[in-house]
Design brief:
This protein has 407 residues and is α+β, with helices and mostly antiparallel strands. 39% of the residues lie in helices and 17% in strands.
């Protein structure tokens, strides 16, 4: 499977200018491709092919006075920008037909220099390489300093240079992992676990372990409130406003990075200790429309389950997701009697059938494990006949890094 390994970059002043040029040229080519397709659609003509766009928007455009500066960056960057536009349209049409999984996607929009995230991609034919001193040598940019937090397990197939809203630069490498080597790193075990995700505790395991919720956003709210208040008081378009915006972005990035690191450490621990893991399919979007919205977003359940999914596939583990309508909080895990719904403030309850006193979250974790077929019921028979292998998650999304970034 393919994974991304991200490392922090520290370009100097000249390299920052070269990267800004590359970001700008890539953005212009992308916007030109979207505009050409939109003009063809409005005129009722067939969409131009990728070859026609490449010839018109790159090769011929470089010879004009208005686009001659496209020659100042690597041609690979411009070609990859055209490919991104093609992929965006392909995803849009697949979403319209209903053949693409996930939420509906809209048509590609024009990129802006004010977008929080800027990126360019270099493939192998761009002849980028890692120097003997550990720097990343990029065409027409130079050898950029990299903070290597670990070694790359294989030769990368491409590298994407990303600038985020906090004015930080990252190099994101695409790696083809070796399944045999990955599974050898995690020896097989006979342990299985059920997980009940919540807000009072981030996760309660079926073995009784309770993992506290760090509440990264709640802890940083005071600092964020102060930074956002300072930003609101700055004059629009001023340099002081730009500095205040950067301060807010860095504060938010610190919260995001801390949450992601917590998810990575916990998911890796659970994957390494258990052969089978059961979780509940939570409706995060619905919960995010309630009064608990801020706490739900702060917990980041969807990101955590996504990490469990790709790590389970990578290391040969089994991840089972049970339906969200399974009455895990209403059913006695000892006798199986359904005791009805209970308000959220009820954290302990006694089964009316067998008299067992249950901790609400621990009981739910036990029921999640049983409903997934990773445990046996009171009569000794499996609740479900077997387990379902984890589905492969899409890799390569920068919004959801598959490995923790370097600090």
């Amino acid at each position: 499977m393919q994974l991304r390994y991200s490392f922090r970059l520290y370009p100097d002043a000249g390299q920052r200018m070269a990267l800004a040029r590359a970001f700008g040229c890539s953005r212009v080519v992308f916007n030109d491709a979207v505009r050409a397709r939109e003009d063809s659609r409005k005129a009722g003509q067939p969409f131009p092919t990728a070859g026609e766009l490449s010839r018109k928007l790159i090769t011929e455009a470089k010879r004009t006075a208005g686009r001659s500066w496209l020659g100042e960056v690597s041609a690979v960057v411009l070609q990859q920008s055209l490919r991104d536009a093609e992929t965006a349209y392909r995803n849009f049409f697949a979403s319209l037909k209903g053949t693409r999984k996930g939420p509906k996607t809209g048509p590609p929009r024009f990129k802006s220099r004010k977008d929080a995230r800027q990126s360019v991609r270099f493939t192998a034919n761009a002849r980028w390489h890692i120097t003997g001193t550990g720097r990343l040598n990029l065409p027409k940019i130079g050898a950029v300093k990299v903070k290597w937090s670990r070694t790359l397990p294989a030769t990368p197939t491409s590298v994407t240079v990303v600038k985020d809203a906090a004015d930080r630069y990252f190099a994101s490498f695409v790696i083809d992992t070796d399944p045999a080597a990955d599974q050898a790193r995690m020896p097989a075990t006979d342990h299985t676990i059920g997980i009940d995700l919540g807000l009072t505790h981030f996760a309660v395991l079926s073995d009784g372990t309770k993992i506290d919720s760090p509440r990264f956003l709640r802890r940083a709210e005071k600092k964020l409130k102060k930074a956002q208040k300072e930003l609101a008081r700055k004059q629009k378009g001023s340099k002081n406003r730009a500095k205040a915006r950067l301060k807010v972005a860095r504060a938010n990035a610190k919260v995001t990075d801390a949450r992601r690191e917590f998810h990575h450490q916990l998911s890796t621990r659970l994957i390494s200790e258990n052969q089978g893991i059961a979780v509940e399919d939570l409706s995060v979007k619905a919960l995010a429309r309630t009064r608990l919205a801020k706490s739900v977003h702060d917990a980041g359940w969807a990101s955590f389950i996504g990490m469990l999914a790709y790590k389970a596939e990578r290391y040969g583990r089994t991840l089972v997701t049970i339906g969200r309508f399974e009455p895990t909080s209403q059913t006695c895990s000892t006798c199986g009697a359904k005791d009805g719904p209970k308000p959220l403030n009820v954290r302990e309850w006694t089964c009316s059938a067998c008299g067992t006193v249950h901790d609400r979250d621990h009981n739910a974790a036990l029921n999640v494990k049983q409903a997934a077929g990773l445990a046996v019921s009171a009569c000794g028979a499996p609740v479900r006949p077997g387990v379902i292998p984890a589905q492969r998650e899409e890799t390569g999304s920068h919004g959801f890094p598959t490995e923790p970034r370097a600090a």
